[in-house]
Amino acid sequence: MNLSAPPSVRVLLLPGWLGSGPGHWQRRWEALHGDTLVEQDDWQTPRRGDWIARLEDEILADPRPVALVAHSLGCHLVAAWAASSRHAARAVAALLVAPPDLRHPGLPSVLSPWQRPLTPPGTAAPALPFGATVVFSTDDPYCSSSAAQRMARDWGASSHTLGARGHINADSGLGDWPEGRGLLRALLPSPRHNPQASPI
């Protein structure tokens, strides 16, 4: 089975806090499938506005539509970007892997600014305007299964569990993770009917 994205769609890999190191499936996908890993200027202190701006710049650098593949804090980056960007229609899909629970009592203090909502108080954040799947693990130390499913509902996304796979990172033993690639392919529009195929 061909697990590469069609050439009409760019796949952007969005790591979480501290980035994705050697052996992480995102780095493997970058090498194996030619995806673009979006490098942030500061992985240690992830300022939400800076991360959103960096993602926006990368999306606007190429006229093709994008599929966003996020891990950990990168999942919240996708939601924040979609809620604030005028170019959210450029995205056709998002695979959101192991989002951390921002309500978790053990959340590192450097991530606490991400808890502040982008919408006015009392207003629910809008659902993502593109197809998305949240992939979660039953023993993720940063997020319970119920919290992951709650985020999926809030984002209007489907959910998929891998069972007990920790934080679904380099320590999870996923290798090239073809199952994840299959989940991404299932989200992408059919080449025979792709409303985003022309430059936007």
Short description:
By secondary structure, the protein is α/β, with parallel strands linked by helices.
Topology summary:
Blueprint: E1 10-14, H1 25-33, E2 36-37, H2 48-60, E3 66-71, H3 73-84, E4 91-97, E5 131-136, H4 145-155, E6 158-161, H5 178-187
Helix pairs in contact: 2-3
Describe the structure.
The chain has 200 residues and is an alpha/beta fold. The protein has one domain (10-104, 130-186): 3-Layer(aba) Sandwich (Rossmann fold). The chain has five helices and six strands. Strands 2-1-3-4-5-6 form a six-stranded parallel sheet, with helices on both faces. Helix 2 (48-60) crosses helix 3. The radius of gyration is 16 Å and the shape is globular. The model is unreliable at 193-200 (pLDDT under 50).
Contiguous low-pLDDT stretches (5 residues minimum) are 193-200
Average pLDDT over all residues: 92
**Multimerization state:** single chain
CATH class (first level) name? Alpha Beta
Annotation field: number of helices: 5
- CATH fold name: Rossmann fold
Structural class, by secondary structure, is alpha/beta
Q: What general outline do the C-alpha atoms trace?
A: globular
| Strand residue content | 15-25%
The total count of strands amounts to 6
List its traits.
200 residues, Rossmann fold, six-stranded parallel beta sheet, 6 strands, globular
